[in-house]
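[recover] target loaded
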C-alpha cells in the first residue's frame, strides 16, 4: 500500500511541467505548512526562499524538534523528500505567518508556495497541539466566525494583491481545510476570479451552511472536499454536499491522518461513498450538535490535573495527569462517578506520573471498574506514552496497595 511519501519516491522525478498538479500534490503542500518556518521564510511576499534552502535552515534551527502528539511526525521527512525531488525542488516559499493568542483563542498559520509555472498554493495550517488551537476548534461549533477564519480571508486577499499575475490554489488539512473554504468564499469577487481550485482535506464544516450564499455559489464548482472513508472531522457541522472519498489504512478518527490515505499513481484511491459506519457517525454527531442550544455549545472549560467537576445529572468527574509524551500537565485521564459506583478510565498514558499517584491516594475512595491503556500489549519495555500488560499489573498492585482498589475491582486492559 502506498501513501504520500511513497508517491514522492515513485513520482518525484517527474516535474510539474511533465505531469501537472494533482490532488496528491495538494495534500503534500497542505502538510508542508505544519513545519515551523519562523525566521526562515519571510513574513511577507518579498525574497521567497527555495524549498531545499528552507529545509536546510530548518534542520539547523530545529534539529531536535518533534511535531507533537497529534501532528504526524513524518512531516519533516516529507519536507526533505519534496526538497530532494525534481518535482518540488524549484518551489519557493514566502509569507509564512504563525500567530497564537490565548486571550482571543486564536491559532493561525499560513504559507504561500510559489510553483515554477507562475501559479501559487496558499496553505493554511490545521490545528496544532496547543490548548488554544483546540479551544478555537470548539469555537467553530457556536461562533459564526472565529478569528482564524477572518485572518485567512485577509491573508488570501493579501496574497492575491501581492501576486496579481499568479492563478491561486488554496488549501489545507483539518482546520486548515475549513480556513481554505472560508477564505475562498469571503475574500471578495475580484480575488475569487484569481482562484483556480480550493482544497478542503478532511476539514470540519461551519456552524451554519454556506451553500446558499451568493459568495459561495461563485466558487462552489472549484471547491474539492477530500474525506477518508470513515471521516469524523470532515463531516462535522455543515459542510459541502459534494465530496471525494479516499481509502485509508487507519480506522475511525485516526483516518484523519493524511499519511494514511492511499495513493494510486497520481491520484488517491477513490471509493464510491463513505462507509456505513462513517455515515452513522456523521448523523449521530450532527443530531447531537443540532440538539444543543447556543449556551450549551459555548460551555467550554479548561480542565487541569486535580480538577473535580460536575457533569450532567448526578455524574462527577476528576482529572488526573497522564504520561503522554512531552506535554506535561496537558494530557489527562479521568475518573467518573454517579455517587454509587466509580470508574477510572486511564487511557493514552504510560506509567502514571508521581503526582498522579499522590492525587489518587489523596482523593481516595474505591474504584469499581478500572480501564487501562494496554497499547503495547505483550511487547517488551513500556514507553512514555502507553503501557503494556506488565504495566497494567503494576498499576493494579499499586492501586490495591494505596487502598483505592481491592479484589472487588474489575480491571480491564484495552488497546487504548
Amino acid at each position: 500500500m502506498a501513501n504520500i511519501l511513497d508517491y514522492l519516491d515513485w513520482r518525484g522525478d517527474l516535474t510539474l511541467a511533465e505531469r501537472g498538479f494533482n490532488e496528491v500534490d495538494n495534500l503534500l503542500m497542505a502538510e508542508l505548512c505544519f513545519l515551523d518556518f519562523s525566521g526562515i521564510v519571510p513574513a511577507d511576499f518579498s525574497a521567497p526562499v527555495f524549498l531545499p534552502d528552507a529545509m536546510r535552515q530548518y534542520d539547523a534551527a530545529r534539529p531536535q524538534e518533534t511535531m507533537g502528539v497529534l501532528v504526524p511526525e513524518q512531516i519533516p521527512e516529507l519536507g526533505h523528500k519534496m526538497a530532494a525531488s525534481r518535482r518540488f525542488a524549484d518551489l519557493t516559499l514566502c509569507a509564512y505567518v504563525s500567530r497564537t493568542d490565548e486571550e482571543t483563542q486564536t491559532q493561525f498559520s499560513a504559507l504561500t508556495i510559489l510553483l515554477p509555472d507562475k501559479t501559487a498554493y496558499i496553505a493554511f495550517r490545521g490545528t496544532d497541539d496547543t490548548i488554544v488551537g483546540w479551544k478555537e476548534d470548539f469555537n467553530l461549533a457556536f461562533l459564526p466566525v472565529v478569528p482564524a477564519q477572518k485572518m485567512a480571508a485577509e491573508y488570501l486577499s493579501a496574497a492575491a494583491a501581492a501576486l496579481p499575475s499568479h492563478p491561486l490554489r488554496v488549501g489545507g488539512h483539518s482546520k486548515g481545510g475549513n480556513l481554505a473554504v472560508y477564505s475562498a468564499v469571503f475574500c471578495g469577487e475580484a480575488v475569487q476570479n484569481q482562484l483556480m481550485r480550493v482544497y478542503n482535506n478532511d476539514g470540519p464544516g461551519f456552524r451554519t451552511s454556506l451553500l446558499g450564499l451568493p459568495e459561495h455559489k461563485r466558487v462552489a464548482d472549484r471547491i474539492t472536499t477530500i474525506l477518508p472513508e470513515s471521516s469524523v472531522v470532515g463531516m462535522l457541522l455543515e459542510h459541502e454536499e459534494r465530496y471525494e472519498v479516499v481509502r485509508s489504512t487507519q480506522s475511525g478518527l485516526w483516518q484523519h491522518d493524511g499519511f494514511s490515505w492511499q495513493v494510486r499513481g497520481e491520484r488517491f484511491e477513490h471509493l464510491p461513498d463513505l462507509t456505513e459506519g462513517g455515515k452513522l457517525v456523521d448523523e449521530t454527531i450532527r443530531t447531537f450538535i443540532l440538539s444543543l442550544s447556543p449556551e450549551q455549545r459555548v460551555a467550554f472549560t479548561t480542565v487541569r490535573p486535580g480538577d473535580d467537576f460536575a457533569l450532567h445529572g448526578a455524574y462527577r468527574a476528576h482529572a488526573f495527569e497522564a504520561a503522554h509524551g512531552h506535554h506535561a500537565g496537558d494530557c489527562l485521564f479521568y475518573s467518573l462517578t454517579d455517587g454509587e459506583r466509580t470508574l477510572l478510565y486511564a487511557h493514552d498514558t504510560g506509567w502514571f506520573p508521581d503526582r498522579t499517584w499522590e492525587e489518587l491516594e489523596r482523593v481516595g475512595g474505591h474504584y469499581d471498574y478500572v480501564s487501562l491503556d494496554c497499547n503495547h500489549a505483550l511487547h517488551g519495555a513500556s514507553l512514555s506514552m502507553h503501557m503494556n500488560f506488565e504495566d497494567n499489573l503494576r498499576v493494579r498492585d499499586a492501586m490495591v496497595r494505596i487502598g483505592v482498589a481491592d479484589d472487588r475491582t474489575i480491571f480491564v486492559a484495552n488497546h487504548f
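[recover] notes: The CA atoms of residues 128 and 365 lie 37 Å apart.
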